[in-house]
Amino acid sequence: MPLQRKPYACIVLGMELGEKLEILAASARCDASFASSGSDRRPRSGGIGAGAPSGVCHSFSGDGRCISLLKVLYSNACRNDCAYCANRASSDIVRTSFSVDELVRLTLDFYRRNYIEGLFLSSGIFSDPDIVMERLIEVARVLRVEAGFGGYIHLKAIPGAGERLLRLAGLYADRLSINIELPTAASLVRLAPEKSGAEILGAMRAMGDAESEHTRDSRRIRHTPNFAPAGQSTQLIVGASPESDRTIILLASSLYRRYALRRVYYSAFMPVAPDPRLPAAAAPPLLREHRLYQCDWLLRFYGFKAEELVQEADGNFPTDVDPKVAWALAHRDFFPLDVNSAHLGELLRVPGIGLRGARRIVATRRQVSLGPAELGKLGIVMKKARWFLSAGGRPLCAPPEEQSLRLLLAEGPREVPGASKPGPGRTVESQMEFAFP
User: For 244, which DSSP code?
Assistant: First the structure.
């Protein structure tokens, strides 16, 4: 018999555990910020599970999101009415909650069956933030202390919860995160009026400070307990508010710099219910989300600055080429770079050369002089890189005028007037060169 839809005020009691799991797992599906790398937690003697340094094993849903953890809400009852959220107070959905014992049992049972390698736990704000945070911490405490669980645990920090509780959460969790949600305070006020940007940033600061203190203490005190060894992350919703990609990426850069975040996640807005505050229902801006992840990768690993990555006048990334190609096209005077003398940071700015490829170039050219044949063997994507490199003072390939080069470098097959066809065995380069890490 189908479940009856009830308003927020009525939480269904006496529901079967399987029904709760179905509802509360579905309620958690919109949160993308649950990567699990960076923890090396080990179980105590006789315990169960371990968080390996490389993170938990991952699987992926059809839309590319990682779903490797038991990812659920403690409760989908929420007193906030955020316009973009399926669990908002005004939504007419079935409300339910787990108990601490139910969540512990589910996590251990799923782990023993090899369904999961850890737990991602968040919750709707069903009561005072401290009370909600205490429930999440209690689940983690029972798993760690009473059940001896050594697997991965990611806890969401609740906006408005006290600093003492945030510090306690970090002793049991491998990663903590609190979602900043929207790029500006004005959008937060308009779409999530019950949330406070100051509280969210204050929680980030408190968790960052606690992590720094534990790092310093561990250098002096041998048995200092770990504090959220996988660090903290956050999530930004893309497309629910009018801010440009420039605004979003500048904010992400600031968060990395000020709060030492491990990751900023970008989640394409998906309409869940009609609301005059939201854009008209349309396809989620998945390509825009992808471009932001590519740009984020360049910020964290390629030495780019946020201020230099958005070239378009409207402040948004182009749809036809990735951000690295867009930068290269806007800085033609930087190229060509001599593959036998350019330093690592310069090589990382060449489209088609990634971190591994740049390091291989630097290592290999100590023994031999490099040319096109050698670069291909090193895994360089020559379809892109050849236009921006030289060897022995000669360009590898004379670049055409800018518009034709842009068409050549665009993602997907394009017909370019006057351009030579790819030779035998050449394939179209994957557009995921800087995609999801």
Answer: -
CA distances to 4, 9, 19, 264 from 15, in Å: 12, 16, 7, 36
Q: What separation in angstroms does the CA of 254 have from each of 63, 267, 387, 408?
A: 28, 18, 33, 34
Q: Which residue is it, tokens 């097959």?
A: 413
> What is the domain partition of the chain in residue ranges?
17-204+216-226, 323-409
257 vs 264: CA distance, rounded Å: 12
Residue 61 has which token pair? 């849903």
Separation CA 31–CA 46 (nearest Å): 33
Does residue 336 have a cis bond before it (omega within 30 degrees)?
yes
Percentage of the chain lying above the pLDDT 90 cut: 64
Residue 4 token pair: 């009856």
pTM of the model: 0.83
pLDDT tens-digit readout, 199-244: 999 999 999 999 999 889 888 888 888 899 989 999 999 999 999 9
Side-chain-facing half-sphere of 130: CA atoms under 13 Å: 4
CA distances from 266 to 11, 32, 156, 394 (A): 31, 7, 16, 41
If we measure between CA atoms, which residue out of 23, 17, 21, 18 comes closest to residue 4? 23
Q: How far is Cα 419 from Cα 405, in angstroms, rounded to an integer?
A: 9
Closest CA to 261 of 157, 150, 356, 116: 157
What is the DSSP code string of 148-202? Answer: -B-SEEEEEPPTT--HHHHHHHHHH-SEEE---BSSSHHHHHHH-TT--HHHHHH
Q: What is the model's pLDDT at position 219?
A: 87
Compute the distance between CA of residue 265 and CA of residue 35 in angstroms, rounded to an integer.
9
For the record, the structure tokens of 192 come out as 């999530």
Residues paired with 60 in a beta bridge: 66
341 CB contacts (<8 Å, ≥6 apart)? none
CATH architecture of 17-204+216-226: Alpha-Beta Barrel (3.20)
Query: What is the Cα Rg of the chain in Å?
Result: 24
Angle subtended by helix axes 323-330 and 286-301, to nearest 10: 70
| pLDDT, tens digit, 9 for 90 and up, residues 86-125 | 899 999 899 999 999 999 999 999 999 888 888 999 999 9
Handedness of CA 376, 382, 388, 391 (dihedral sign): positive
> Burial, 330: exposed, middle or buried (Cβ in 10 Å; 0-12, 13-18, 19+)?
middle
Encoded tokens for 342: 């350019």
Find the helix or strand (DSSP H, E) in which 70 lies. strand 70-73
Q: Report how far residue 86's alpha carbon sits from residue 55's, in angstroms, rounded to the nearest whole number.
A: 29
